[in-house]
Every structure is written in C-alpha cells, then in structure tokens.
Design goal:
Order of helices and strands: EEHHEEHEEH
Structural class: alpha+beta
Oligomer: single chain
Number of strands: 6
Helix content: 25-40%
Strand order of the largest sheet: 1-2-3-4-6-5
Strand content: 25-35%
Number of helices: 4
Largest sheet: 6 strands, antiparallel
Shape: globular
C-alpha cells in the first residue's frame, strides 16, 4: 500500500491508491491520528464515516489510475474529516426504498456528523464532515 502521510500539529493527511484495501487503510489512518490526538470518543463515528466517504470516492469519484486524499484537521472546537477525489459529480443524499440494499451511507454520516458539505475544485471535490470535540455533544447521541 502506497501511503504518503503528512502530520503537522493539528493536521494529518494520507494519500491512498484507488483500491478496495484503501477503505481499511483510511480507517486505520484516522484511528491512529485520533488516538495520537487523544480524541478516543470520536474514533467510532469518524472511522465509520471515513469508510463510507472513501467507499463512495472509490465507486464514484476516483478515476482509474488516480489516488485520493483523506485528511483530518483539528482546532479547539472540532475535527474536520475530508475525502478529496479528482472525479466529477456531487454526492447526493438519497431516499432509498426500504427494500434497497444501498443508498443510505450519506444519510448515516450526515446524522453522525455535526456538519456536512462539499467543496468543489477545478478538478474534483472534497466531501467533508465536522465533529465537535466536546464529548457532551457526542453523549447526547449515545456516544461515549
């Protein structure tokens, strides 16, 4: 697995190849960073969310032969998870049929995160989620 990691103070990023194994690698990456930052109570939510966002990037946003980037940015109030790809299009919150086997991922991450958005670039986009650093806001939703 080719992974370039850059960690500066409260910023960490990994560049990953367009492979199925990159979903697990992205989870491992964010888990390691959150442990380093001592934000254990965010690990479960952010690991689930990065799995969903990287899966979507691999299925819909990363052209063959390209890589994608996973980033974490921390300030005093929040952690921002970003997944940047070089593909066209925008993620869409769907309303799947109750019998459908897919189409719920963005709804799940939208519920877990405290903020959700997409930043367009000349080439590609960054899908981001924000999570408040204060543990009490997480506890209201059943988190640790």
């Amino acid at each position: 697995m080719s992974k370039a990691v850059s960690r500066h103070a409260s910023v960490a990023a990994a560049t990953l190849p367009r492979r199925r194994t990159s979903v697990g690698a992205s989870r491992d990456f964010v888990t390691g960073v959150l442990v380093e930052w001592e934000l254990h109570f965010l690990i479960e939510d952010i690991a689930l969310c990065v799995s969903e966002l990287t899966t979507n990037a691999l299925l819909h946003g990363v052209p063959p032969g390209r890589e994608f980037r996973v980033g974490l940015h921390r300030d005093e109030e929040s952690v921002r998870l970003e997944v940047r790809d070089s593909g066209p299009g925008q993620p869409v919150l769907r309303h799947p049929d109750p019998e459908a086997c897919s189409g719920r991922g963005l709804r799940i991450v939208n519920e877990l995160a405290d903020g959700f958005g997409v930043d367009d670039h000349v080439v590609g986009k960054t899908v981001w989620l924000a999570f408040k650093v204060s543990a009490p806001s997480r506890a209201r939703r059943g988190g640790a």
